[in-house]
């Protein structure tokens, strides 16, 4: 893959008349979200035709990332110390080469050695996340659509997610943290997979040796794994949990603690609530995605050939 992402080491900072910060050609003027290590701001800039366009700018605090350290064992049995900034650079190395309509595009990386911050310029998706998690109720909410689920919208979102994942897998990349909060939508319902902080490059046999991502979206075989498991199939399971959550606004598996959650994922059957009512085809697709046996679980290739989904 040839990178279409700009990498800029020059950084100029100023303020406009309203006090908004200007980073190079980008004026930052609204908070979109904040995590433990990064802030996302809405930005505007002029393109070559002097048209004002909007972007999202993800801002990392380098020093905070350097202080967060992880001790891991290498394949040779040696202890290695890594910091979170190294993980961000690994993420950048993966995403800077991605170019697909259903993958959140990184347009520019602004990284100046003397700056305490690192900037990623991304597509701006007006509708925000597919779903937001509400810890108090342990339910998801949809901030961009209050209507009940319908086949057309289900198919439109699922086919785009499938195409995005198929592109990643074809390039030997696993997202490793697919969930509704890491999927964003544009104004015209274009679905984009975002946040590649857990992403991995696969080996030749598509297997991984360690579970990654959010526990509630881990597959039964990854929870029970004593050795390696197929990363592609585990990601299909996460797609199933995501689409189940989109339909019912709850997780298919949960628990009072991590042990109970893992036991539930590995041993409990999938329960389909009576409300909201869904069509036979939506339930059929969810059952195929949430097949606990990775050998018989539907593949992305099979999904892309499903007559109902592609009609």
Automatic annotation (TrEMBL):
Keywords of this entry: ATP-binding, Kinase, Nucleotide-binding, Serine/threonine-protein kinase, Transferase
SMART domains noted in UniProt: S_TKc
Residue ranges crossing the lipid bilayer per the database entry: none
Binding residues annotated for ATP, in chain numbering: 55
Record Pfam families: Pkinase
Domain called Protein kinase: residue spans: 26-309
Gene Ontology BP term (one): intracellular signal transduction
GO MF annotation list: ATP binding; protein serine/threonine kinase activity
Gene Ontology cellular-component terms listed: cytoplasm
InterPro entries in UniProt: Kinase-like_dom_sf, Prot_kinase_dom, Protein_kinase_ATP_BS, Ser/Thr_kinase_AS
Recorded family membership: Belongs to the protein kinase superfamily.
PANTHER family: MAP/MICROTUBULE AFFINITY-REGULATING KINASE (PTHR24346), SERINE THREONINE PROTEIN KINASE (PTHR24346:SF77)
Protein name as it appears in the record: Protein kinase domain-containing protein
